[in-house]
Description:
The protein is of the alpha+beta class. It is 42% helix and 19% strand. The longest helix is centred in the middle third of the chain and has 13 residues, at 54-66.
Amino acid sequence: MSCGEQLKSEIRSAGYRVTPQRAVILETVAHMEGHHSAQEVYETARDRLPGLNIATVYRTLDTLHHAGFIDLFPSSTDAMLFAYHDDTNLHCHLHCVNCGRVLEVDVEPFLPLAARIEQENHFKISINHITLRGICSDCQKQGR
């Protein structure tokens, strides 16, 4: 089964109707590495789907996020960034609130903490996409 067919099957399994926009936008995000703005998704997807407009991309990304296929990542520029939700790719971000720099770090140190919080609070934590905000070493050196 091709990647596109697999993603369409996943959309159907989640109880959503497969539209050309949903299929192309989800496949586009899944093939783009990292986190991207709606504008970047639009620019990549419109080649495959003539007539696509940016408003449709925003609505579709929102729907796909609520369906659990896309993770959101707030950026320092007020633009929301999007990434394909992948339970097999656990990762954590360190996001500098001054310069916007994003570092990806190993999630392993967070697993025992998440397990303890889950046990103490009877709460299932989704640890596949953690973001910690702070100030990077470069900004610290510059006194920001």
